[in-house]
Amino acid sequence: MDMTLSIIIPCYNEEALLSSKIPTLLKITEESTTEIIVVDCPKSDDDTKKLMDNFPSVFYHTCENSGRAQQMNFGATKAKNSVLLFLHADVTLPENYFSLISNHIQNYDFGLFNYQFDKSNFWMRVNSSFVKNKKGLFTGGGDQCHFFKKETFDRLNGYDEEFCIMEDFEMMDRVKKGNIPYEVIQTPVTVSARKYEKNSWLKVNLVNGYVFISYKMGVTPSTLKKRYRSLTR
Predict the structure, then answer these.
(1) What is the pTM of this model?
(2) Would you call 115 exposed, middle or buried from its count of C-beta atoms within 10 A (0-12, 13-18, 19+)?
(3) Which segments of the chain have a pLDDT < 50?
């Protein structure tokens, strides 16, 4: 099938990142087959909206409700194309992302990418190694850029908006339970290491592991969010 793609970017005070990300994304995007949708958080207090006036081909919206799941679902309702890609503001797609997704979606209803960090060292490469395989314990985070056939996303009823954190892993659990076929594209996206610059590698991974285990044990999303925010900067 000939693929058309909607790239949905949820953001919260990401003016600085978007000022460089959007021009880069536009350079590698096929305008005739791709639309870019930026969905801002209602709590944002930077000049993202003003910035987006510089990119008339990009669709900008402010979601009525805060929360990444809410923003991504809202963006999906605005999307016109057959495949939905959810892109975090601090993640950069490979230049050939369109052909990679187009080839993948011929055989699968869902997919995601391997990733690498924009700062390379041994410990960052260790992190990346955990998500290369679709059966990896930590495979499925939003930094891997979930993408779906729109009909599949709609059938799943989108992201669960109860999850103010871990909405990506909750979605992965439903993908697996629903036996929805997928693979991990091995060409990596590039993820900002900014979290590791504010916190140590050890601290970030201990917190992430703690929150992930707590999620698997059924701790409520609101409690998970409070614990995560109290432990990281």
Answers:
(1) 0.92
(2) buried
(3) none
